Protein 1
Amino acid sequence: MSLALPSTREEAWRWSDLSGLAALTDGSASGRLDASAVPWIGCGGPRLLFLDGKLDLVASEPGTLAIGPVDAATTHPLGRLATGGGWSLALGSGHAPPATIEIVHVATGGANHLPARIELAEDAQASIVETFVGDGWANRLTRIVLGRSARLMRSVRLLQASGFTSLRDEAEVADGASLVTVVLGAGGAGTRIDGRVTLAGTGAYGEYGGALLARGDQRHDAALVLRHEAENGTSRQLWRAVADDKAAASIAARVEVARGAQKTDGEQSLRGLLLKRTATVNLKPELEIFADDVKCAHGATVGELSAQALYYMQSRGIPPVQARALLTRAFVADAIDRIGEEAVRDAFHADAEGWLENAA
Amino acid sequence: MLQIEDLHAKVDGKPILKGLSLTLNAGEIHAIMGPNGAGKSTLAYTLGGRPGYEVTGGTATLDGIDLLEQAPHERAAAGLFLGFQYPVEIPGVSNLQFLRTALNAQRKLRGERELSGAEFLKVARAQADALGLSMDMLKRPVNVGFSGGEKKRNEMVQMGIIDPRIAILDETDSGLDIDALRVIGAGINTIMRKPDKAVLLITHYQRLLDYVKPDFVHVLAGGRIVRSGGAELAHELEREGYGAIAA
């Protein structure tokens, strides 16, 4: 397959490193699954296991989830590769699954592409956690349509040891509906997180944020657009980026306020932490406002761990590595704390902790 | 117990301590007084191993262990506690988490069993009660949003939980009203006035010494001890000022 990938000369891809994707695509998956190593959180709801993009029926309990062709066409350069069969969740008015839905994507090499569609009718609600592990290139397109007053909490863990994970989310949020997406990047693979959330209805709420932890020569790259098209919408983008060694973590986050989207309340908090001077954090907050009665706050800062706090902790007996880990964990905690469900939140904290404890 | 001999130290390339010698035996409370810029805080930080405080000569040993060779967290595990003049705020890290991590790291380094969450909470609650700090405050991030007095009280709660062999308290009385001073004074006596412990109180004023009676008072000026005496020396300094003595 020949790949037509965006180049870093394009503004939206300037911090991306897609150079490894061609080789990953030419590679092949081993398809070997260690069932005991699948990182289920154990939420008790429906669950799906995808091995190299193919459903593993034995390990899955689809419940309300459907498997088959997915209506999720896009022009996005990576998202459009995810065609054909995938998974979907369609909830009727007022429906809610009994517990959090869990989806685990295990990759064993090569490239796999998978589309998904989540459509919640009026007042329906769902919570979904997705986890990516393994090696190879996992590419996902997720189309989200929330009806009036529907609520979706989506948590995504990017834990692949190597290879690449790319996400493309396209969401539309109707009147009074709420979409919260929290992403944790705590593996060893390169990532690209691409999201476009349109607050199409009055009083809609959209949140997209997370924590990206990078070391070695790893690259995390997120590009988000929160678009307000109706009045009284609220959006939040809270990102924490941590980079060690020669790694780079980049976040471009934009708030768009269309003409007529009065009383918009948009907030961006982008913060970067450099654990070494050789690391890079790129933060690019953008506002594009065509309405005159809006409140948009944005902050972007990059810094190092406080030397004072480090010494204070050491003076109480905490060794330097542990002190750095505690401070780094505190730095990313508020991004992870946006996750509502305790078991999921704890699992994400544990993954961040695991990353920190692996510090050389 | 703590033996400092001919200690020289530089900060930003500038010599501050210039041959300081001092011995603290177990069961003793010593006060170090002196004018601003005498090197009082430098002494505390040098013994605590703060980066930027460069030892250029002399020795400091705690129970025969060469303190100056050790990393700050190892000094803490050896029994040294440093009470900060300006306790540091640590957003996102709760006091309880901070202290449990600290206490267990020290115990681990000393080859002792680490405390469970329940065991630790019992110790923490007892110390917080003794110093009138609520458990709710201990659940909050370290010193964030604490008043000056609360921060100092928190230093004492930390000292109580860690239970060090020797405490160096740097201007623990600064910024305290008289009630807070009484609480802090009582805390120091309860936690540290014991036959196997020692305290080095660094203070600019004599006030704290009304509550914590020192066995010895030393005057630090120009980077060395220029005079030593009993508790009465503090009163003499209060009456006559540092001018005559530190000249």
Note: Residues 2-246 of chain B form a domain with the Rossmann fold fold (CATH 3.40.50.300).
Protein 2
Amino acid sequence: MRLRTTTALAGAFTVLCGCSNALYFYETEKISMSLEGRPDSSQPVQGSLGLKQRVAVVAPPKDPDTMSRARSDAVSMISTFRFRKDKGGFADLGPVTIQTALVTGSAATGLDRPKTQQVAAVQVTGVRTVGPDTPDIHARKKRLTDCVIDISDNTKLNAIAKKLGITPNIDDPNGTKTGIKTRIGELKLPELEGFEKSDELNSCPQ
Amino acid sequence: MPNLTAVRFSEDHLGLDAITTTVQQGEGLVGPLLAISSCESFPPKRLTCFTHEQANAPGQTIELHLCPGGAIPTIPGKTVVCIGNCFVEAKLRMVAAFR
């Protein structure tokens, strides 16, 4: 017995015809599964699962007048792919999960930073937002902001600002402190945990 | 001497209780609330912007209340800090802050 199934899972082809600076994006995923069994019950059922993915992007020139090559935005791209097959079912054919993502622009260039996914998410949306924190997280943030207020060493303050990705105020360290406190309030838990371990905050009371 | 200010943005889906907690926590971190305003400068996001003043910690806890029909409610023992456009549960509402 031989069973072969080929399924085209997804396909998307976006074409903006007639536009000289259109962005072209193409993605397909194909799954192929084969099962092979023999009348001889001593022989195991054999199977294989294959997957093919194609992702193509054609980015337009940034300046349609000069047709110069784009240097930012859509040019930076990372495509990710994750395949997972869970156990279970007949012949151990559990559910198959395929996760793909295409990251472009500053989100893609920011992926080599320590806070990868969080930074990327922020860069995609372009703005950090706040919501209610649990009392524990709020207390941890409060401890940090209280600590920052007491820092008089400008070098240390600027290092903290750099670590948080904000611009130090060259006129007044209080301006830097305001930016730091604001950013601390915006931190998500993984970022907060990383920031708490900063050398510059060693002297903060626990 | 004038004080520095800080802004915090919240998403539009939050309810009034969650927003109130957010503002109260913001006061603890960056200072008393100064102003509330809606912000749609980062489409497609619809945000509410809370401006805080870097000043001494406020004595009383801040409360937010809706202003149905634009009428500012009277809260016994409280005074209005500011009013402004605020996204509450995805709807743009008039909200008053009291202390």
Note: Chain B has one domain: 5-98.
